[in-house]
Every structure is written in structure tokens, then in C-alpha cells.
Amino acid sequence: MTFTCTQENLIQGLSVVSHITGRSINLPVLGNVLLKTDGGNLKLSATNLEMAVSTTVRGKTDSDGEYTVPAKLFLDFVSLLPQGKVELDLTDEGLTVRAEGQETVIRGLPATEFPLIPKLTKARGVTFHVEDLKRAIGQTVFAVSTSESRPELSGLAIFFDGKSGKGKTALVATDSYRLAERVISPSGETGETKLIVPSRTMLEIGRILSSYKDELGVPESVEWVTTENQLVVTFGQTELISRLIEGSFPDYHQIIPERFKTMAVLDRAEFQKAVRAAALFSRQGLYDVHLEFLPSNGTVSVHSADQGTGKTSKAVSGDVTGEPNKVTVNFKYLGDGLAAISSPKIKLSLNDAMSPMLVLPEGEKTEAYRYLVMPIRQ
Q1: What is the span of the domain harbouring residue 151?
Q2: What is the pLDDT of residues 82-95, one digit of tens each?
Q3: Helix, strand, coil % (nearest 5) of the chain?
Q4: Are 109 and 131 members of one domain?
Q5: pLDDT under 70 in the chain at which residues?
Q6: How far is the C-alpha of 301 from the C-alpha of 317, rounded, in Å?
Q7: I need a labelling partner for 286 at 20 to 30 A (CA). Which of 19, 219, 343, 354 fits?
Q8: For the purposes of burial, counting CB atoms within 10 Å of the CB of 188, is it exposed (0-12), middle (13-18) or buried (19 or more)?
């Protein structure tokens, strides 16, 4: 194998695929990236057996071949090379890398030891706008459960609603303590289907989409195809294949109240600061902050107290309507939801201290994003 490309293109390709590699005592090749000439270009592939990522590096092929080298070592080394032409040459010693008078040999493993990445027949899928999908992932995936006791909650649930004719798709995550839902609109026929994608896969998709942000000619859409128990995501020259999680995601609509007794519209930044201040004085391990809704004053009081550190209270002014109310919530969970919202104002809706609190962006379409926080029951 003899292949020539630019250092910039090679770094871009390696940064896309090498992220999922890792050390494995039983299968050392999982820490390697597979280099294979393909149609005059170079195809880079990596896998952790749960997920596989491949991308194409443009260049010139003088002779075909394939080989695997340690992904992190190769990326770190190429990043130190000067910008310009890089030549890769496969010899009996290993992979020879030449650039501006520097010659280096990197030893790896034969391509025959690399796990077979299945070639899936792609059915008709749907496409998402890149920015829509990136934002939806960022607003939901943090709420995925990290517990192994309920595998169906360890991924992001994707609900395709083809019956309504509106072409809506909901991305939903919950760990039983909070729930995040983002609705976006794909292009193409979705039908009415649902699937659960591992959280690491969704994080990797988001990372790949963000890695091309400064490059010209980057596609504005992402192709999304499911086949049996696998997901295939295509973005330009990059393809990701992942397993899906088997199981039944709970009917989360049942826990979102349809009516509320108390509502408050507040400045998001001011409320965030009040929550952060209260977090400093919350009880260790409980992470509790107390919210008191006072319609007569038009305020929401944010306070906390701890015997060891002290106490604090802050009244945040806003449009508070309905009944006086109060609730205690985990400041980490509340803070995550507030950070996922970009609108200047937020809307808090509550029934009582034993019921979940709904957090919505105010000024946007309320159905686009919903965040639900379960109360800490005293």
C-alpha cells in the first residue's frame, strides 16, 4: 500500500474514527485503526464491537493494501508533522510515514486480525438537519440513566411519528429522576416506529457532527437508517454503525401533567445564578434546593441551608401566577435542564411538592423542548 495525502486531511480522518478505540487485553487490535485503500482514496475504520466508525481520506493511491496501527499513537504522531504532503507506505517492517525529510515506521497488526465490520444493505431512511440533530442530542443525552439495572433507560429513545403527517421525531431520555424531550422534524417517510440508541453512540454522533463545523462543503443533513437491531448513520464520507438496545421504553407521557396549579415565567440567567448560589449551601449527598412560588409577590424564592456551611435565599422576580406553591429539587438535575435551554426566559410549572416540575423555554414553541424534574420528597 502506497498512499499520499495532506497532513490536514489525515488528521481530520483520524480524529473522527480514533475516538472509539480503546485498550483490550483480549483483543489488542481494538486499539488500532484499519487503513485500507478504497477507490483511490484511503478508508479509515475503527470499532469497539458495539459501534464502528469509518471515514474516507482524499488523496492518491499508487498501490493497494490494508494494515492496522495503534490509533492514538498514529494520531498523536501525525499531529506533530508539518502541514503538507504525507506519504504512507506499507513495508515488511510496518507502516512507513514520510513527510518533509522525516521517515518513521509504525508497527501494527495485520488487517486480517481486525473485526469484520458488517456491510448492511441500506433501506430508505430519513434525514435530519445537522444543527437540529446536534442540538437535540445535546439537550437530551445527559438525562440518560447510567445504571445497568434497567438497560432500556441506558439509551436515548427515538420516537418516529409517521401517522400524524407532521413528520415529527421525539428524542427522549430519562433516568427516573428527570426527563428530557426534544422534538425535531426529519425529511423522508418514517412510519410510526421507536428505537433505543445507546447513549455512547448518540454522544459519538454529536461529536462527529461537531468535528466538521469549520470545513467547507460539509453536508447540511445526516442520513439515518435502521435495519433490524442496528443503526446506520451517514454524514458525508463518514459512516457509523451501532447496535440498538432491546427493550421497551416507558410511556413517559403518563408522568407529564396536562394541567398545573402554579406557573412562573422567569429570566433564565438570573434564575440559574440563584440556583448555583443555593447549590453551594445544599446538603451534601442530597443536593437539595428549595423553590417557593409566591404569586402575591411575583417572585420565586430559591433557598437552601446546611448546618455545616450556612444558608442562602434569593427572590427571583417574574410573572408568577396561580396558587402559592413550593417544591424541593436536586440542583444538579435542575441545572442540567436550565443549561440545555437557550431562550432568555423559562417557564416553570408545578402542581405540588410531591409532583414533578416542568421546565420549558419561554418564547419558543413549547412542544420543541420539555424538561421534567422529579421532586425530592421530604
Answers
A1: 126-243
A2: 999 999 999 999 99
A3: 20, 40, 35
A4: no
A5: 121-124, 162-166, 189-191, 213-217, 364-367, 378
A6: 9
A7: 343
A8: middle
